[in-house]
Known about the structure:
This protein is 31% helix and 19% strand.
Amino acid sequence: MVALALLVLPADAKTRRRRTSRAAPPVVQLVWQVETLDGKVLNDKSGETPINPASVVKVATSLWALERLGPDYRFDTYVLSRGQIQPGGVLDGDLLVRGAGDLNFQIENAMLVASALNRVGIRRVTGRLVVDPFFWMGWEGGSSGTQKDPVQRGLVMAGRLRSGLDPRYWRRFDQTTWRRVAAIRGLDAAHPPQVVIEKGLSVETTPVGGNLLLAHQSNALIDVLRKFDCHSTNDIERLDVTAGPPEELETWLTSKIAAAPGAVSLQTSSGLGVNRIAPATIVKILREFRRSSERHGYPIETLLPVAGCEACTVTRAYPRLSYGNNAAAVAAKTGTLTTTDGGAAVLAGFVSTARGELVFCVAAPRSGRYLSAARRAIEDWLMNLITTNGGPVPRACAPPGADLADVRVVTVASDATAKVEAAAAAPAPMGVGSR
């Protein structure tokens, strides 16, 4: 018979084992600033202390672009031929693409360009596909993913464009995208457009020569900004070429909101890297953003995502603000960093309550190791703010944004203007585009 020894722990030892078996929940330290629309401070905690605002910087960038370029600004991309178009749909020469900083040119746009090229009689190019440094396609993830060598970057972009022009390169997702584009534009989904490039890819700083074939115009800037703020896309940094670099934005913004020197410090226009703005200053930026948006004829919901209205970062990161009585009460921009400055979770925007509209910025600095807990703490804080101000008041959800397939693609032979031809004949400097 085998004797079994049982180890009996004292009660206090059992308690110690239970306590050490799971980590204690982190204590989230929040900072914030809450004001009325007319600037009266209602509540703050370290509101004047600069923090890393993460992607909330995109609000400043959107304001900058809206003021400098205007809501109806469009980015023009020109396609030219360097050679003769022969019978049978053959361009005997190179196909040139001159960009002007379109920050949202995707495969849908390449498909529409291919369709337009087919209409002007080009299905095969015996030469190369040549792009300039101002043509971009697809996402790069902002400065963190941008190829620094302009030639290598251009070759990547040219390769993406070639894949978009030629269905032989399409993946299953691209085929689905084509069917959606065809349905929107009334095109034959069973016969996708095709332009075959025979001699590879090239990058030219200023492509020389060429006959203008067509002009591709982006969606209006107001729709582009809404998409980038909704999904917090770091490639908003591409606006640096057209609107101006971060150091210019920093100087302009300081003057615009009458901030003290040094109150705004920007390394990037996306929120990547080391940026510094205090919550109180962020509230001033938000108020100016709202004034600018409304002055141009757009409610703030057109540019800032509304929790519960659409599948944006604010809805995904703060779900308790997106359903029930709280749904549609908050229009805000999220900010998230995982490692820089120890990480951060930030939420800043407007909340509609029974006692009126409030402007707020709340942040959990150095919370990169426990972002989920930080977001829950921010949710709790904002829900308490709503409750103490009489409860939520839903705002109107903005109508759906423009689709990428709703861009303009015009051919010179039919309806492109002398202005378009002149712009395409010149180098693509900062600010080339249409209003």
